[in-house]
Write a structure and sequence with these properties.
This protein is an alpha+beta fold. Helices cover 24% and strands 37% of the residues. It has four helices and 14 strands.
């Protein structure tokens, strides 16, 4: 498998601006829950309930989205062969508002189908790579106290105001106060 990803920290204060960015750029937001609950249709990212992972795409790639069905009937997006960009928002989970979790943008450029390597279309790969670059440039900066990940300015403000410490191999920031 060949893939690319961007690891970062954002907070709920960032969601409105990110959602405006997605809408302005014609990005469609999907999530697995929308496949299993006809009343659920995410038009934007959020993590106010049990959903922290979304999938992004464009209308032009909708014919190349695969859905798998589990034995229990639950359906999910099969990112390996789909023209989808995974967006794990990280942030705060409802059960722990003192821990800031890492998010990521991730996409698969190519994969093995049996023994044959299949590259996704150049148009999709170029779009996904460009999206990540623009997202990073628009929303993220480096944090002077940690150089491995990218951060929204709001995430840095939260880390500083809570005197948070990096834990779990860099996957989370835990508030000290």
């Amino acid at each position: 498998m060949k893939s690319k990803q961007l690891n970062f920290f954002i907070v709920p204060k960032d969601y409105e601006t990110i959602n405006n960015f997605l809408t302005t750029n014609g990005v469609i937001v999907y999530c697995d829950k929308s496949l299993n609950d006809e009343n659920y249709n995410p038009l934007c990212i959020t993590n106010t309930d049990d959903i922290h992972q979304f999938f992004l795409s464009k209308e032009e790639f909708s014919d190349e989205i695969s859905i798998k069905i589990l034995d229990n009937g639950l359906r999910y997006f099969y990112i390996t062969s789909s023209n989808l960009l995974e967006f794990n928002v990280g942030g705060f989970y409802p059960y722990d508002e003192k821990t800031l979790n890492r998010g990521r943008l991730y996409f698969i450029q190519g994969f093995y189908d049996d023994d044959k390597f299949v590259m996704k279309s150049d148009v999709f790969n170029d779009w996904a790579e460009s999206f990540i670059k623009i997202f990073k440039k628009t929303f993220l900066v480096r944090y002077s106290k940690e150089k491995d990940f990218w951060y929204s300015k709001n995430a840095i403000d939260w880390i500083e105001s809570k005197d948070a410490k990096l834990i779990d191999g860099g996957q989370q920031w835990k508030a000290s106060n």
